[in-house]
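Chapter summary example.
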Amino acid sequence: MLHEKLKELRKLKGLSQEEVAKALHVQQNTYCGWETGKHQISTDKISSICELFNIQPNELFTNSITQTFNEKVQNGYIHNVENLHTEANETIAIIKQQNELNQHTLDLLRHQMDAICDLLKK
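The structure predicted for these 122 residues follows.
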């Protein structure tokens, strides 16, 4: 459906509804209505939508978006993948750091337990 296609295209470009609405010179609630299917898109906006998303009009009315690698790069896929990779590496580093702290705490507790056991034996 057209409203689902609009949402898909917007998300592929990494844009907010407000950004798309501004680019199309419509109110944000109007654009939101287009995406939810509550409002009909005026035919005079079709060419603007196609220009914004860099697609042909027939692509707007098809069920799936087929993109070449270059189109994916233009739409920010590489940037998103790089961000996910960076975030994953940062998360892994935090988990490793926390694991090291936990291990250090366990070592200290073992040392204290050994000291208590030695005191109790005396």
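To summarize the output: The first helix runs from residue 2 to 13.
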